[in-house]
Amino acid sequence: MKRSFLLYWTSxxxxxxxxxxxxxxxxxxxALPRNFSNGQTTSMEIPATNGxxxxxxxxxxxxxxxxxxxxxxxxxFHGHNGTMAKQEDLSQFSEKGLLIGNAGIIAVYPQxxxxxxxxxxxxxxxxxxxxxxxxxxxxxMISTLEGMFCVDSSRIYAAGKSNGGGFVNLLACTPSIxxxxxxxxxxxxxxxxxxxxxxxxxxxxxxxxxxxxxxxKVARYSxxxxxxxxxVAVETFRQGWASRNGCQGKPAISxxxxxxxxxxxxxxxxxxxxxxxxxxxxGYKIKKGQxxxxxxxxxxxxxxxxxKNDCTRSVFDATANVTIPFFNKYSL
Length: 332
Ligand SMILES: *[C@@H]1O[C@H](CO)[C@@H](O)[C@H](O)[C@H]1NC(C)=O
Ligand SMILES: *[C@@H]1O[C@H](CO)[C@@H](O)[C@H](O)[C@H]1NC(C)=O
Ligand SMILES: *[C@@H]1O[C@H](CO)[C@@H](O)[C@H](O)[C@H]1NC(C)=O
Prior knowledge:
Blueprint: H1 2-21, E1 41-46, E2 55-61, E3 71-77, H2 84-91, E4 99-100, E5 103-104, E6 106-110, E7 113-114, E8 120-121, H3 134-148, E9 151-161, H4 163-172, H5 175-178, E10 183-187, E11 208-213, E12 224-226, E13 229-231, H6 234-244, E14 252-255, E15 266-271, E16 281-286, H7 318-328
Parallel strand pairs: 3-6, 3-9, 9-10, 10-11, 11-16
Antiparallel strand pairs: 1-2, 2-6, 4-5, 7-8, 12-13, 14-15, 15-16
This protein binds 2-acetamido-2-deoxy-beta-D-glucopyranose (3 copies).
One 2-acetamido-2-deoxy-beta-D-glucopyranose binds at residues 81, 119.
Keywords: Carbohydrate metabolism, Hydrolase, Polysaccharide degradation, Secreted, Signal, Xylan degradation
Protein name: Feruloyl esterase
GO biological process, one term: xylan catabolic process
């Protein structure tokens, strides 16, 4: 009796020590499905079930992917009227060389369903289709990917733009899914007050990285009316997370180097003092920044022509230089 008790606790301890490194999923060691290969993007489908419609998403495996070692998953959610293909082009999580936990990543681009205005959208916006359960969709993608690939279940992350950023915040505010995601990034995000009836019933400290331009005319920095709803002001959103995470005091202010940002357009606000569980809240306030995803080059679909919003250039790369290193710092 005593001996088996001791054995039991020894094995629990061994498992706990192993899981500090990573949490390998059931897909580890399986052969890659035929239609997947390294450095490629493959379309996936979840059949309609339980009153939920068919769902689609794209999955990109890093160039150095090995299905016998655990890899992080990074979700990238498109904005209102966006598509999974455009989001891959815009957010660049399929770029070569991105490392989390010293391994290449599995980049996932989910497709939103058509909302009340006939344009793709995510749960929580005034124009999203209330019958669609996008949180269930994310849970199903995670369990599907964990079964097919060698996933490090302690390193799953979510990023999104505009309505997709608002949805990332909904994930962070929903304990049943937030408990599976290590850190969150929101870009030019639309945070509707109606998403949570004003509440964010989080039960853990959550690392949040947020980017927003002061010249964003779609999701204004100061918040206010939009699409029949109300957007939370960007600084209110950030302060809300800093408070929920127990961070104290005002954010520390820093800038990019003058070599990269001669006009010092980017102000970085970091809340890290006494935040619970080593969490931080970091906000990038980008002067002249429009409703885009900060990057140095234009997305391919802009055909080299600078226009507005997604077809604008920034002085920094939000994905490779900021979001990936931020995610890398956190695991569950
Ligand atoms: C690729 O393979 C997976 C797993 O077998 C399957 O679910 C998916 O539908 C396939 N995608 C395409 C485009 O054939
Ligand atoms: C939505 O996207 C489609 C396809 O890219 C485009 O033709 C349409 O103009 C967009 N709608 C709005 C309101 O921007
Ligand atoms: C991006 O990161 C690299 C490597 O850390 C650094 O050398 C470079 O200056 C950064 N670029 C920008 C624009 O921040």
